[in-house]
Design a protein that fits this description.
The chain has eleven helices and 22 strands. It is of the alpha/beta class.
């Protein structure tokens, strides 16, 4: 594996080249740059492969933007529409995660604290339990899938250690670090029920989803529906499913109206078949506090009150007050781990939480009333500030979210190339390795686990981020040539009418051709 080289080595190579030119000129010699035949051959080979690929019949009318760069020399091996603007889909996550690593550091961790605001007498808390959110997306997340409630159960243990067996007041969720806008600008309304469009919030539990299973029974009967965590009654499920014969087609159909937590399930399922889907909830703060209350009851801690949002309180909590006492804290995995999940799984909610975290932790200075702390707009300004430091022309970039789910994002291949170069050459090894390792490996893991397989030249070699919306496909990252020369590549395709797997096949053909280059 070729890891990102240091900026010092590249800089020194360039300095030596410049010094040699000065010495030759000083000696009275006439120096004329000669084209490198190896580079010329590589460019010709790549140009033919790419041109033949993108001009094939399935992609007629599609709009391609491509740039390939030798990261050792900085030479552009190929460019096509490199300065045009494209909708990049989830390639936006490259910008978000790079900015988060640079601004927060790979070792950054979220902290979610649990407080009580009253005295404890005879095991009874005469007050409220308050959870102070920080935007952490990991509670009940990927590393806790076997038991999403494990953090809540630890908090129950902490309450017992504090001598609390009953809470006389409410469970209050403080989501105030983030703005109250739950969805990204320009997101499609029909994405809302599905996990990839989960609501953004200062408090997150189980990625703000429920995990539903629909299992067929005997033909003609409704299917059996269950969901986790806890088959919580925070949601209501209308079972309009049917078990159909095995010789007929099955399908999945879910609907959740805006502003409601009622799911209509109209799936058709075969006998014994199980369909699984993660579905979003609305009002994540109430979901968080509601499930926390259910867990506390299961763990033997009674709660007289209910779960509420801090916005329902007439006076916000004063965490410095003498009556306020912290009884538990959850610290997230490191940002290095969170960024890896974001890019490996193309996890939209994680990316959106990171974007808004950039609008809370050391946010950019602003006097604009529209750029509020914790907002996506202020977060995108922070991302652009980091891009500007990487010498990206931010006047020709439009960002409205952190995940790429919106079609209002516009980025050029040139901007993405410069970011990839910057994260390879210009940043420290800790940041560079965290970014590089966050990208899935072709044929092995993440969103490109099933691509670049069966001995493909780029198998186990390419590290890249995918991006997919209807009629939009992207693949950008790093690959090494046969002799280990590191290349960056950006392949964006907009307005295609081909099947998604056909566009991916074209991208894979291009990347495999890069991996086959001899130098």
């Amino acid at each position: 594996m070729v890891l990102p080289c240091s900026g010092l080595r590249v800089a020194c190579t360039r300095c030596l080249a410049g010094l040699l030119a000065i010495v030759l000129c000083a000696g009275g010699l006439s120096v004329r740059a000669q084209p490198d035949p190896t580079v010329k051959s590589a460019r010709a080979r790549i140009a033919k492969v790419i041109t033949d690929t993108i001009e094939a019949a399935p992609y007629a009318g599609a709009f391609w933007g491509i740039e390939v760069t030798n990261l050792r020399t900085g030479r552009r091996l190929f460019r096509h529409n490199a300065n045009r603007l494209f909708t990049p889909a989830s390639n936006v996550k490259l910008l978000t995660t790079a900015a988060a690593l640079k601004r927060l550091g790979p070792d950054f961790r979220y902290k979610t604290a649990v407080y009580v605001n009253g005295p404890v007498r005879n095991g009874v808390l005469h007050g409220n339990l308050i959870v102070q959110g920080s935007g952490d997306p990991t509670i009940g997340g990927y590393r806790q899938r076997k038991d999403p409630t494990q953090v809540f159960r630890r908090w129950a243990d902490s309450l017992e250690e504090a001598g609390i067996s009953r809470i006389q007041g409410d469970i209050i969720g403080d989501d105030d670090p983030f703005s109250d806008v739950p969805l990204g600008e320009g997101w499609s309304w029909n994405d809302v029920p599905y996990s990839y469009a989960a609501e953004v919030n200062g408090l997150v539990f189980n990625a703000n989803t429920i995990d539903m299973s629909v299992t067929g029974r005997m033909s003609g009967a409704p299917a059996r529906i269950s969901w986790t965590p806890l088959q919580t009654d925070f949601v209501r499920v209308l079972n309009q499913t049917r078990t159909v014969p095995t010789d007929s087609s099955s399908d999945e159909e879910y609907d959740r109206p805006f502003g409601a937590n009622t799911f209509q399930v109209r799936s058709r399922v075969h006998p014994g078949e199980t369909q699984e889907e993660s579905l979003t909830i609305t009002n994540p703060t109430l979901y968080f506090t509601h499930v926390l209350r259910e867990v506390l009851l299961q763990e033997g801690i009674s709660v007289a009150g209910t779960g509420i949002d801090v916005d329902q309180m007439p006076i916000k909590p004063d965490y410095k007050a003498q009556s306020m006492r912290r009884v538990a804290t959850y610290r997230s995995p490191s940002l290095r781990t969170i960024v890896r999940t974001t890019n490996h799984e193309s996890q939209n909610l994680y990316a959106e939480q990171l974007l808004r975290t950039l609008a809370v932790v050391n946010p950019p200075d602003t006097t604009s009333e529209t750029l509020t702390v914790g907002s996506a707009a202020l977060g995108t300004r922070a991302v652009k500030a980091e891009l500007a430091e990487a010498d990206v022309d931010t006047s020709r970039i439009q960002l409205v979210d952190g995940s790429g789910l919106s079609r209002k994002n516009y980025v050029s291949p040139r901007a993405l190339t410069r970011l990839l170069e910057h994260m390879w050459v210009d940043v420290g090894p800790n940041h560079s390795s965290a970014f590089y390792e966050s990208l899935p490996t072709g044929g092995e893991e993440g969103t490109i686990e099933y691509r670049f397989r069966n001995g493909a030249p780029a198998q186990g070699n390419v590290h890249a981020k995918t991006g997919t919306l209807s009629h939009v496909s992207a693949l950008s990252g790093y690959v090494n040539t046969e002799q280990g020369t590191p290349l960056s590549f950006v392949i964006l395709c907009n307005h295609h009418l081909a099947e998604a797997n056909q566009v991916r096949a074209a991208q894979d053909a291009i990347v495999n051709a890069l991996a086959r280059l001899p130098h």
